[in-house]
Design a protein that fits this description.
Distance between the termini: 42 Å
Radius of gyration: 24 Å
CATH class of one domain: Alpha Beta
Shape: globular
Largest sheet: 7 strands, antiparallel
Helix content: 25-40%
Structural class: alpha+beta
Strand order of the largest sheet: 15-12-14-13-17-18-16
Number of helices: 21
Strand content: 15-25%
Number of strands: 18
CATH topology of one domain: Vanillyl-alcohol Oxidase, Chain A, domain 3
CATH architecture of one domain: 3-Layer(aba) Sandwich
Length: 570
C-alpha cells in the first residue's frame, strides 16, 4: 500500500489519455497554467511515535504466529496508522503522524484471531482490526486511550473461499479477502457477489461488513447488510457466531449488531454471503436528460413500475461536465459524431447543454429479463426527455470506474484539495436537500477558499428514496488548508442533518461523523450502542473511543464556535 495516497505503490492516475480533464479542472477553479506542484514529504523524514511494547503480550503472539507475522518496522506501522480520509492523507503528506500501531499482526485463521484477542484482553492491549485500509471516515485510529500498547490486526492473509453451496447460492469466506479475489474465486464456479464499491480493488469483505458498505450495483444485489447471511466475530467477551439461515425471528438481529460495528466490538473473521449466478447478459448505457429533476423523476418511476436497473448513476450538470471531461482521447470520427450529437440536442431537441444531466444505467440478467427491463426503463426515460447515448458512455465508465479515487492524489500534488460527502433521504426531499446542501457547500467555499467546485450524483436508489453523493474541489487560500477543508466538510454534514438526511449513506461514522451522531440517532440511540460496547468490551480495547458522547468540533479539529448541528425530522 501507499503510505501517502490511494492504492498500491505501483499505481498512479494516468491523465495523459484524458486530454480534456486538466483543462476542465483548471478552468473551473481559475488556476494558472503553471500551477506549482505541492510535494509530499519523503518517507525518511516521517517520524512515527515511539513504540509502546507490552513484552508479555508480544511474546505470546510471536510464539503463536511466528516472527514473520509480527511486524514492528516503520513501513508496516506507517501504512497501518490511518485510513484514506482527507485528514488521514493530509497528515501523511505533511509528516504529521501522531499515532501509529506499535506492531502489526497477520493471523490466518479464526482460531488465531481468538487467541490474539484473548491475549490482548489478558494484557490490556488495544486492538485495531485492519482490512484494506481504505476507510475514509476515521475508523482505523483510536481516539480513546493511547497510553497502552496498540496493535493493528491485518486480516488480508485470511482470504480463502471456505465453502460454496451452489444449490443454496451461498458462500462462506474468510473476512480478509479483497474484492477482486472474492469475484475471482466465485467466478470460477459461475457465481458473482455483485458488490462493487469504489474501493473494490483494495478493500476487504470484513471491511465492507464492519462499515456497512454499499456497492455500485446495490439496486440489484443489495447493500452488504442484505448480502450477509451469517458471520463470526471474535469479541473481548467471546465468539459471536450466527446460523446460515435465510431469516430468523430469534429476538434482536445479532448479524445487524455486528454489521456496521466498525471494529469497535471485535474482529469479523468469517462471513456467509448470498451469491448469484453470473448474468447471461449485461450492459451499461448512457442517457442525457434535460435537467436533474427529469432524471430524478425517471429513476423514481423505475421503482414504482418495477424495472429498476442493476446500477443507476444520475449526475447533476457539473458532475456531467466532469464525466465528459474524464473521457479518454477519441479519434477524429468519434469527435465528429460527438459534434453532430451536440448540434442535434441543441438545435433539434432544444436541450440546454449546460443544464443537461448524464445518467448511466446497467441492466443484467437472463436475455429475457435483460431485454424486458431495458425496454421498460428506456420507455420511461424517453417519456421524460432522456436521449439515449448508447453503450459508449457505459464502456467508458466501466473501464475507469475505479480510477476516480486516484484522481485525488494527482490533484493534491497540484495544490487542489478534493473530497466527497454522501447522504440519503426520501424521494420527496431529494431536490430540496440537493439544493440546500449545494448552497451550504458553495457558501463555505466562498467564505474560506480562493475557489471551488461542487458536483453531485445519485448513486443508489430505494423504494423510499435515494443516496446523494457530493464531490467538491477546493483551491485553498494561503494559510491553513486543512482548516479550510474542514469548514467545507462541516458545511456539507450540517446541511445533511439540518435537512432531514443521514450523515452518511455508506462511509461509516469513525470520528469524522462522530460530532453529529447523537443528533441523528438520538441520545438514547447512542446510549444503546455504548451499552453494547461496554458489555462486550468493558476496557475499551477495540478501536478505543469510537461511538463516545461529547466528541465536539474542538476534538474534531475546529474551534467549537457555537455552530451546532440541528436535526430536521422528515
Amino acid at each position: 500500500m501507499k503510505w501517502w495516497g490511494w492504492g498500491d505503490e505501483g499505481t498512479e492516475f494516468q491523465i495523459d489519455n484524458r486530454p480534456d480533464l486538466w483543462p476542465y479542472i483548471r478552468a473551473s477553479l481559475n488556476l494558472p497554467d503553471d500551477r506549482p506542484h505541492s510535494p509530499r514529504v519523503a518517507f525518511d523524514s516521517v517520524r512515527v511515535p515511539e513504540k509502546k511494547i507490552n513484552r508479555a503480550f508480544l511474546n505470546e503472539v510471536t510464539e503463536r504466529l511466528g516472527s514473520s507475522r509480527v511486524r514492528e518496522d516503520k513501513s508496516e506501522r506507517l501504512t497501518h496508522a490511518f485510513g484514506k480520509s482527507f485528514r488521514d492523507l493530509w497528515r501523511m503528506r505533511h509528516g504529521a503522524v501522531d499515532y501509529a500501531p506499535d506492531c502489526v499482526l497477520y493471523p490466518e485463521t479464526s482460531e488465531e484471531v481468538s487467541a490474539l484477542v484473548a491475549s490482548a484482553v489478558r494484557h490490556q492491549v488495544g486492538v485495531i482490526p485492519f482490512g484494506g485500509g481504505t476507510n475514509i471516515a476515521g475508523c482505523l485510529e483510536p481516539i480513546g486511550s493511547r497510553d497502552r500498547m496498540t496493535v493493528s490486526v491485518d486480516m488480508r492473509r485470511m482470504n480463502r473461499l471456505l465453502k460454496l453451496d451452489g444449490e443454496s447460492e451461498t458462500a462462506r469466506f474468510q473476512a480478509g479477502v479483497l474484492g477482486p479475489d472474492v469475484e475471482a474465486q466465485l467466478n470460477r464456479s459461475g457465481f458473482t457477489l455483485g458488490h462493487f464499491p469504489d474501493s473494490f480493488r483494495y478493500s476487504t469483505l470484513g471491511g465492507w461488513v464492519a462499515t456497512r458498505s454499499a456497492g455500485m450495483q446495490s439496486d440489484r444485489y443489495g447493500k452488504i447488510e442484505d448480502i450477509v447471511l451469517s458471520l463470526k466475530m471474535v469479541t473481548p467477551a467471546g465468539l459471536i457466531e450466527t446460523l446460515a439461515v435465510p431469516r430468523a425471528s430469534s429476538g434482536i438481529d445479532i448479524n445487524r449488531l455486528c454489521i456496521g460495528s466498525e471494529g469497535a466490538l471485535g474482529i469479523i473473521t468469517e462471513v456467509v454471503l448470498n451469491v448469484h449466478r453470473m448474468p447471461e447478459r449485461k450492459e451499461t448505457l448512457g442517457y442525457l436528460f434535460p435537467d436533474f429533476q427529469s432524471g430524478l423523476r425517471a429513476l423514481h418511476r423505475c421503482h414504482r413500475e418495477g424495472c429498476v436497473p442493476a446500477m443507476a448513476r444520475l449526475n447533476d450538470p457539473k458532475k456531467t461536465a466532469l464525466s465528459f471531461a474524464f473521457k479518454t482521447a477519441q479519434g477524429a470520427a468519434q469527435r465528429q459524431v460527438g459534434r453532430l450529437v451536440k448540434s442535434y440536442l441543441k438545435h433539434v431537441r432544444r436541450m440546454k447543454l449546460d443544464q443537461a444531466c448524464l445518467m448511466l444505467v446497467s441492466f443484467e440478467g437472463s436475455p429475457e429479463a435483460f431485454e424486458r427491463d431495458r425496454r421498460r426503463a428506456g420507455g420511461i426515460f424517453r417519456q421524460l426527455g432522456g436521449f439515449g447515448l448508447g453503450a459508449a458512455p457505459g464502456r467508458a465508465f466501466q473501464s475507469g470506474k475505479f480510477d476516480f479515487p486516484h484522481l485525488r492524489d494527482f490533484l493534491w500534488d497540484r495544490g487542489v484539495l478534493t473530497d466527497v460527502s454522501e447522504t440519503a433521504t426520501v424521494w420527496s426531499n431529494i431536490l430540496p436537500l440537493y439544493q440546500a446542501a449545494t448552497r451550504s457547500i458553495e457558501a463555505a467555499i466562498k467564505a474560506h477558499c480562493r475557489a471551488g467546485w461542487v458536483g453531485c450524483h445519485i448513486s443508489h436508489t430505494y423504494h423510499a428514496g435515494a443516496s446523494l453523493y457530493f464531490t467538491f474541489g477546493l483551491d485553498p487560500s494561503p494559510g491553513d488548508d486543512l482548516a479550510q477543508y474542514l469548514r467545507v466538510k462541516k458545511a456539507a454534514e450540517d446541511a445533511f442533518l439540518a435537512n432531514g438526511a443521514t450523515l452518511s449513506h455508506h462511509h461509516a461514522v469513525g470520528y469524522e461523523h462522530l460530532p453529529w451522531l447523537e443528533k441523528e440517532i438520538s441520545p438514547t440511540g447512542l446510549k444503546a450502542i455504548q451499552s453494547l460496547k461496554h458489555g462486550l468490551d468493558p476496557s475499551d480495547l477495540f478501536n478505543s473511543g469510537k461511538f463516545q458522547s461529547g466528541y465536539g468540533f474542538t476534538e474534531w479539529g475546529l474551534p467549537d464556535d457555537g455552530d451546532k448541528p440541528t436535526r430536521k425530522p422528515i
